[in-house]
Amino acid sequence: MSSPQLNQKAVILDENAMTRAVARISYEILERNKGADNICLVGIMSRGVHLAERIAKKLLELEGVEVETGTLDITAYRDDEKHSPSVDRTDIPFDVKDKSVIIVDDVIFTGRSARAAMDAVTKRGRPRSIQLAVLVDRGHRELPIRPDYVGKNVPTSREEAVKVQMKEIDGSDKVVIFE
User: Fold this and answer.
1) pLDDT at residue 66, as a whole number
2) d(CA 166, CA 173)
3) Is the dihedral of CA 172, 135, 73, 130 positive or negative?
4) DSSP per-residue letters across 109-174
5) What is the dihedral of CA 121, 126, 128, 131, to 10 degrees?
6) Which pLDDT score, from 0 to 100, does residue 76 have?
7) Tens digit of pLDDT per residue, the chain (179 long)?
8) What's the rounded Cα separation, in Å, for the pair 21 and 162?
9) Collapsing DSSP states into helix, strand and coil, what is residue 164?
10) Cα–Cα distance, 89 to 160 (Å, whole number)
11) Which residues touch 119 (CB under 8 Å, ≥6 apart)?
12) Among 32, 58, 23, 9, which Cα is nearest to 151's?
């Protein structure tokens, strides 16, 4: 049985808008953390990883500081599916203890991925703080989780789908709503 075909409703961010959103998030991170010292970025696989790398590049450009970045595989920490922890593809080559860890994801919806990401990070040490940066906040939270940095708030219905396309994976940068 195949899933129903989704129809593109609207492009909500084009390449330029995505670049501006990443820049805005980067500036907000610097402002809130009073610079780039003692912060690290951890991107949720897979598009969150590329967003984290883009934010790190922008922070280097703005502050001249190389911010450590890591990859977070939350599969084993999800509460909606059971997976073997041996599949964990997380790569955080630094200690998160006493750092401000900024989890980066492409879209926040119910908040369950963010909760799983927090569990995965705290299993590796006790950060000073955990912050959340997302490109798109589409609402419909099921958990009391709110991102600290948002590229764009997009009210959606539960039936709509928000798809982020990134050059690194999809060949182009844009965010599309499907119905």
Assistant:
1) 97
2) 4
3) positive
4) SSSHHHHHHHHHHHTT---SEEEEEEEEE----SSS---SEEEEE----TT-EEEEE-HHHHSS-E
5) 20
6) 87
7) 445 678 999 999 999 999 999 999 999 999 999 999 999 999 999 999 999 999 999 999 999 999 999 999 999 888 776 655 557 789 999 999 999 999 999 999 999 999 999 999 999 999 999 999 999 999 999 999 999 999 999 999 999 999 999 999 999 999 999 99
8) 16
9) strand
10) 29
11) 77
12) 23
**60 SS3 class:** helix
Angle at CA of residue 71, ends 20 and 52, nearest 5°? 10
């920490």: which residue's tokens? 77
Structural domains in the chain, sorted by start: 11-178 (3.40.50.2020)
Tell me how far apart the alpha carbons of residues 169 and 162 are, in angstroms, rounded to a whole number.
Answer: 16
8-13 vs 100-108, strand pairing mode: unpaired
For residue 148 the two structure tokens come to: 């600290």
